[in-house]
Amino acid sequence: MKKLLWASAAVIGVGAIGFFGFAPGIVERGMNRWTGAVWPVSAEASAVHGRLTVIDLHADTLMWQRDLLSETEQGHVDLKRLETGNVALQVFSSVTKTPRGQNYEANGGDTDNITPLVIGQMQPTRTWFSLLERSLWHAQKLQDAEDRAQGLLRIIRTPGDLEKLLADRAAKVPVTGALLSTEGAQNLEGDIANLGTLHEAGFRMIGLVHFFDNDVGGSMHGLKKGGLTALGAQVVRESEARGMIIDLAHSSAATYADVMRIATRPVVVSHGGVKATCNTPRNLTDDQLRLLKANGGMIGIGYWDAAVCEPTPQATARAILHVIKVAGIDHVGLGSDYDGGTTVGFDTAHLDALTQALLAAGLSEADIAKVMGGNAARLLAAGLAPR
Ligand SMILES: [Zn+2]
Questions:
Q1: Where are the domains of the chain?
Q2: I want to staple 267 with a disulfide (CB 3.0 to 4.6 A). Which of 8, 274, 297, 346 is the partner?
Q3: CA of 326 to the centre of ligand 1 (A)
Q4: Residue 272 pLDDT more than 90?
């Protein structure tokens, strides 16, 4: 049996190497792009940005064969660029499985693009055929980066960790926070006991679904787009009890409504947009925004085309303003989807462009502070506390 497994692994490996032409870096460069636009930032916006606590609820950097600590032109996020962008905390998500021919309308769960990527990147063999092991590998990569970062990168697991991070940054200690999340709970492999394994590995945010319906719930891009399953309801309850925040990004309308009915803690929609400013299947309706407000949760607005239709700071600001109009100032933040196969108008080193756009849109510094990270800090502090 083991021999057979190795034989098929070798076949897939050769296929993957052929597919990726020996260079996953080239694949990444083709997928995580920047439009090349440059945004002027006024002295006033730059000063405001320097005073902010910036928190981004979603980046997929850990999926790629890249060292967070080396400054690079590749993709959208590394430690140096987080520092330049004055980012206090970056949520790093674990992508474990995406369908071939991935689209926003309808995908089955029978195929997987991540397997050839995992093999092409020569990840440990235990990650080749286990979605749980893929996530544990992402956690290990982040831990390894923290170990080598000489205090400049710090993984956040508790409300106390978050409090200390924000106090240190207020005292001008150079440190950037990192929090682990999952993109789809298919990495539980159908077993609720694995939620404890993920918690132990440091995961503190649980995205229920990704691009296909899985065994916890329906995806907005799935075939059936159904609701929360019995296992999914168990995941919501246990996550809340452990101090893990539920993420409804990519959830079908039915899953979204089901979770809102049973959630006893604020949820996030970590990365997305609103139909009112960009009418794609990826985005939330005004009714969903009102449910989010009632739950006390928040949405992280993205920077890429399917979230805001045009990858500019102004388009992201327009979506943020719409959430403020419908749900109020306390329910919106940032969800870049950096390094998630996205094309963006500015990388994390240039987040001051967004502060500039929010100032130009007429927001006060106090409101900008809530949007850029204040709301996320409040939600994380409450959501990380176990019961
Ligand atoms: Zn996503």
A1: 2-383
A2: 297
A3: 23
A4: yes
